[in-house]
Amino acid sequence: MSTTIESKFIAACVGAALGESIGMACESMTPAQIQEQFGRIKGPAPRPESDDFYPLPAGSTARQTEGLLAVLKSSNPLPDLPHFAFHIKDAFNRFPTLWPKSAAFPWPPFPDEGHYTFAFAMPAAYRLASGAITVEDAADWLKSFAPVSIVWQQGTWVYLRLLAWMFEHHTDSFAKELFLTKALMFVDEAEAYFPHDFKLKRRMQSIQPLMEGPLEAVAATCGDVNIAAENIISVVGAVFYQHPDSFHEAVLSGANLGGSTGAVTFYAGSLLGALHGTSVFPDAWLDKLRVRDSVEHAAKSYVSRK
User: Fold this and answer.
1) Which ranges constitute the DSSP H helices of the chain?
2) 23, 262 in Cβ contact below 8 A?
3) Which domains, and CATH codes, for the chain?
4) What is the pLDDT of residues 219-271, one digit of tens each?
5) 10 Å Cβ neighbour count for 193?
């Protein structure tokens, strides 16, 4: 099995957590509120207490990373809903301040329309890239989930396919135009495998003409980066498209858009790690990442399970 794929998978997991550690400080704020509270997000910052969220120190992560850890713990070799539900409920009970104050624990465990559970794609992407499963195997596994929303399945599929492609891709031959072509191709695949919901494709089509312009225009088209799955995945794609070579710029751009900043920076960070490995992570940010050891251990434990 390729060491490069293994190391890039671990980097994707760490990059996701590192990204969330930047975005969690301004979760659900508007750009004006970010400006008032922080001036601009420039790196790890503490999350202030609000009506919606508990305070967290700089370098913390929140529910996105807990979702990833629950996915990795429930994967044997791929995650399933019952085991994920056990692990995410355990995290919710032990660390309630990482969730919104209003959070409850529903079944299926997909609050916020499932956007944080796109992390289900990460083990499947690793196994697809390493040759352990086929595209059809991955599709059959994702089809087995029920009851879940179709748009969640579609978004998870697009994310899975992009991750697997990046695990195998050489950075020196990467082109952002090819990334966009691949993303749109994977959206078509998603509709074929998980039909009868067109929200994701319509959203991707609406932002395609905006990809070279200000990210604020993309955010406005995507409901000011609200929690809908099609909006999260679309904004993440736009952020990555504009900053495919800079973890620093991609994550800060996503954070300062406001809205679901924890999710956007989590997934953008994972894509940068999947493509480049750990070399693009700012050392000063890594030094402050409070769960770095936990995430690295969980990711390494997963790849050690054959």
Assistant:
1) 3-23, 31-38, 63-73, 81-94, 121-129, 135-143, 150-168, 176-193, 199-207, 215-221, 229-242, 247-256, 261-276, 283-288, 292-304
2) yes
3) 3-304 (1.10.4080.10)
4) 999 999 998 889 999 999 999 999 999 999 999 999 999 999 999 999 999 99
5) 17
